[in-house]
Input
Amino acid sequence: MENLLRPLIVVGGAVALTLVIGWITDRLLCKADERHRETPLWGLLRRGRIPYQLVLCSALLRASYDEANLLERFSAAIGRTLTLVLIGAAAWLVIRIAAAIVETTYTRYARAHRDPARLRRVRTQVSLIMRVVSAVVGVVAVAAMLLTFPAFRAAGASLLASAGILGIVAGVAAQSTLSNMFAGLQIAFGDMVRIGDTVVVDGEWGTVEEITLTFLTVRTWDERRITMPVSYFTSKPFENWSRGTPQMTGIVYWHVDHSAPLEAMREKLRDFLRECPAWDGRAYGLDVTDTTPNTMQVRALATAKDADDIWTVRVTIRERMISWLADEHPYALPRVNTAEAPLPPNRTNGRPSPDGASPRRAHEPPRADR
Output
């Protein structure tokens, strides 16, 4: 009976005590969250209840397993397994607590500052800091797990003795990875590009969706994802439409006939922009920028508060201007002339003049009347 009750009491008591302590801790966090609505820290800490219970359970079992007299032949393996679970759960719990603290800090900062550009910069830095913390905790946890095995402890001295050579070899082999990691830190704290920025890379227009220590994801306007190494943004030029002020000036070109009514087009452009909610009202204009033998190039300028609105403004005025010209001034649209052009005055190109007199050549002097 003792051989049966002892394992049940030890194992069952550890599990029951874990559940009770976990429930009490969760209730305390709930009450703290209700009392302090101004901070989300206590609610975020509740996300760590699973690793918290794993830490409690594995620690209690590891401390009391020898008293259970259960599977004594495998006591060493079971004890090492519980130690590994304890280390892994502790690392998991540390990451959850760090994430809760960082997220709370960012939330307080976002409430105190309303500048979107500054918030995107801080958000980028916070996300990369969390990735660094997670990587460091993970490496320390794996190292601690390996040290629980006697073979790895014995090999530790030889590994440390050859650490210089291994560092050189690892640096050469992981040169690209290390450069990307340093580039990620440079992007995070150098404020070159942030999450939510509108960028143009390799001719693709999109929004920065994710930044890690090694790669960056750009979501294009047609919902494609372009994944690029972060070292690209530190070694090659790119367009960042969100850096500084997001206000933009858009350009629309038309090719129209030389007889197009420019003043009427300027007035209609002003009317179209006044009816377009995306126009911010800062500036507009319409000018002739180039000519060809058949057409002239007309350029319209308009402003908007950001890249999304400037796209709306451009497509709106382009469509409405073409429709207005087609309805009201069809002669102003480009066309191919097939009829003879009107001649200048007093030039008949070798044909009889309207009064019936025979034409004279350009080099022939006028004759006196006889």
Residues 179 and 231 are 7 Å apart (CA to CA).
